[in-house]
TrEMBL record:
Pfam families membership: PPR, PPR_2
Annotated InterPro entries: PPR5-like (IPR044179), PPR_rpt (IPR002885), TPR-like_helical_dom_sf (IPR011990)
PPR repeats: from-to residues: 222-256, 257-291
Keyword tags: Repeat
Coiled-coil boundaries: none
Official protein name in the record: Pentatricopeptide repeat protein
Lineage of origin: Eukaryota, Viridiplantae, Streptophyta, Embryophyta, Tracheophyta
Species this chain originates from: Artemisia annua
Keyword field contains Repeat: yes
GO MF: mRNA binding
Alphabetized NCBIfam families for the sequence: PPR
Length: 507
């Protein structure tokens, strides 16, 4: 019934237009130059004067609305029917026999109604999140071609795209060759194969297809073609080629669109070319192609990586709610930016951003960065909390610089027990312990006259095959020299070992 109503609406519009044409058409006799006075009299009639230009515009506007409304209703009806059929296919995706039967019976009925192929194209579009099922439907369509209408280039382009999403570039190339054999090769077919190679990080093959397209006299590159080419060059940090493709695009009078500029910004971001990245963004702000949400997200990441905190926060103020909800990785990038340098109030800002990250989304590298920041800021309690979290998550630190930073923080804050606990836990958990950490612990125990615990540190050093160095002996010598007569023999022993190793006697 819906289709009947739609056809009747169209018929009504046509009748109204015909009536309007017949009622207000100028008589043929009035078109003769000798009948100008009659023409003037015709336009002077009361009926013609009542028909203002505004009324005519409104009338045609109503007719246009009816046509557009009819098209919208037809599109909605198509999507509804195809969506129902798609759901049935998804329910039977694991049953090959049922799937084949659905396509043979229900599918044929649906595709017969839309003989122009719109239903098949819509179905393949709706099945993009399920590429394995989509390729089964596409292959079924290929087998049915002899009994139904020939396949179109749009269907082949969809098939190539689906094969690319499945990471099956061989199948994509096979479908491309089949379309070529049937003389259906056009720009959309080339673009689909370029996209398949691009999505699978096969940049050289993508470029090869582009060169084939340029040599095909029947096909011409489009903005989609250049957008993919620019993306490939940018991803591979081939900035000169990326800029050359952008210039070639303009030389062919193909206007860069939003995707073009976003791909250029992404390329500069990958190459860490911050000035070029920002210049492209400013060009968008002042040009006809305005930045969108994706542009701002790229700029936010770029400013974070470059350490431009002021502009980073400026962009974040524009897209903050969206970032907080859907782009937690950008929150981490912002935290990383604050961790790079001694900025004012950076700890407060880092903790504000950390609260936006769900606890389940733990990242070892981010935890290590926080440990280093707290160590640099002498915030022992916060550092201990992050260290405990790292041990709980089985995170391992293998960077000597960070381990020294941790031990130095404990020493500056005279936290000898915390340092001792940390060194023991770090050694047991496979963290990168170093000689300087043990020297710091030796010195701390010696300064607190905890000689027995100091000597136990030497045992721990032996466990990790750290023998005594000149600095080790100097720490022991100073520790024993400040003790009573009971430690005199140990002092002489240290002096003897120092002479044996050629270190001499400390002054």
């Amino acid at each position: 019934m819906n289709r009947v109503f739609r056809i009747s609406d169209i018929a009504a519009v046509k009748l109204e237009l015909l009536y309007f044409h017949r009622r207000f058409s100028v008589p043929k006799t009035l078109t003769n130059p000798t009948t100008v006075p009659a023409l003037i009299r015709w336009f002077s009639t009361e009926e013609s004067q009542s028909l203002s230009s505004k009324a005519i515009g409104n009338l045609y506007g109503q007719f246009a609305d009816k046509w557009v409304y009819a098209d919208v209703r037809a599109k909605e009806e198509l999507i509804k029917k195809v969506s129902v059929f798609r759901d049935e296919l998804l329910k039977n995706v694991k049953d090959e026999d049922s799937l084949e039967k659905l396509l043979e019976v229900e599918g044929r009925k649906l595709f017969k109604i839309y003989s122009d192929g719109a239903a098949m194209l819509e179905l393949l579009k709706l099945l993009e999140p399920s590429p394995n099922l989509a390729i089964k439907v596409f292959n079924w369509r290929r087998r049915q071609e002899d009994n139904t209408r020939p396949m179109s280039s749009e269907e082949y382009a969809k098939g190539i795209k689906i094969a690319g999403r499945m990471k099956n570039v061989d199948l994509a190339a096979e479908i491309f060759m089949e379309a070529t054999t049937k003389r259906l090769k056009n720009t959309s077919i080339y673009n689909a194969l370029m996209g398949a190679y691009m999505c699978n990080d096969l940049g050289e093959k993508c470029q090869s297809v582009y060169h084939d397209l340029k040599q095909d006299i029947n096909c011409f590159p489009t903005s989609v073609t250049f957008n993919m080419l620019i993306s490939v060059y940018g991803h591979r940090v081939l900035i000169d080629q990326m800029e050359a493709a952008f210039q070639e695009m303009k030389n062919l009078n193909i206007s860069p669109n939003l995707t073009t500029y976003n791909n250029m910004i992404a390329g500069y971001l990958t190459a860490w070319m911050w000035d070029s990245m920002e210049n492209t963004y400013r060009m968008m702000e002042t040009g006809p192609v305005r930045p969108n949400l994706d542009t701002h997200l790229l700029m936010l990441r770029g400013y974070a990586h470059s350490g431009n905190l002021e502009k980073m926060e400026e962009i974040y103020n524009m897209v903050g709610p969206h970032v907080n909800e859907k782009h937690i990785s950008l929150i981490r990038a912002m935290i990383c930016a604050y961790c790079k340098g001694p900025y004012t109030n950076r700890v407060e800002r880092i903790e504000e951003l950390m609260r936006l990250i769900p606890k389940k989304q733990y990242r070892p590298w981010l935890n290590v960065l926080l440990i280093r920041v707290y160590a640099q800021e002498d915030l022992v309690d916060q550092m201990d909390k992050s260290i405990d979290e790292a041990f709980e998550q089985n995170t391992t630190i293998n960077t000597v610089k960070i381990m020294r930073s941790i031990s130095t923080t404990y020493i500056r804050n005279n936290a000898v027990d915390k340092l001792a606990t940390f060194v023991t836990r770090a050694g047991d958990s496979g963290w990168r312990v170093c000689r300087s950490m043990y020297h710091g612990l030796l010195w701390m125990f010696a300064s607190h006259n905890r000689i027995d615990e100091m000597e136990q540190v030497l045992v721990e050093m032996e466990k990790f095959k750290y023998g005594c160095s000149k600095r080790t002996f100097i720490i022991l010598y100073k520790a024993y020299s400040e003790q009573e007569e009971g430690y005199r023999h140990k002092l002489y022993r240290v002096l003897g070992l120092m002479c044996k190793h050629g270190y001499g006697v400390p002054s």
